[in-house]
Structure formats: structure tokens, C-alpha cells
Amino acid sequence: MVKPTNQLCDTAQMEAQFKIADRAAQRAGVHMTRIRRHVYRVLLETDAPLNAYDLAERLTGIACP
């Protein structure tokens, strides 16, 4: 399992990235759902690429809307 190690992505930077993602989603005609936001957060916090199994493991307990 890949552990979150990206210390460069602090709270302010992450919020800025979420705002950019929110605008991109609006332009695409979709919403940044809670699950999409969680997946994006996981990707921002990780230095290494994640495979589907690692990502799925981190989504355990996240309910679909």
C-alpha cells in the first residue's frame, strides 16, 4: 500500500486545488461529489501513482450518494 507522504500539499494549497477542480467540473457539467472530492484528496496527498487496489482500499467506508 502506498502511504500519503506529500508534505508539500498543505491545507491552503489543497483548498486552492479543490476550487480549480470545482470550476473544471462546473465547466464539464458535472458536480464534485463527496466521493470525487475524496478521491481527488487521496491523489493530492500521495507522491506515487496509485493502482486501483490502493485507491479502492482508501475508499473503504465511503458511501455512494
Low-confidence stretches: 1-5
Q: Topology as H/E string?
A: HHH
Instruction: Tell me, briefly, the overall form.
Output: globular
Summed over residues and divided by their number, the pLDDT gives a mean of 81
**SS-based structural class?**
mainly alpha
Proportion of beta-strand residues: under 5%
Assembly context of the chains? single chain
Summed up, the helix count is 3
Radius of gyration, in angstroms, nearest whole number = 12 Å
Main sheet attributes: strand count, strand direction, barrel closure: none
First-residue to last-residue Cα separation = 26 Å
**Can you count the beta strands?**
0
Helix proportion range: 55-70%
State the main characteristics:
mainly alpha, 3 helices, 65 residues
How would the blueprint of this fold be written?
Elements: H1 11-28, H2 34-45, H3 52-58
Q: How would you characterize the overall build of this protein?
A:
- There is one protein chain.
- The chain is built from 3 helices and no strands.
- By secondary structure, the protein is mainly alpha-helical.
- The protein has a domain of 28 residues.
- The longest helix has 18 residues.
- The termini are far apart.
- The N terminus is likely disordered.
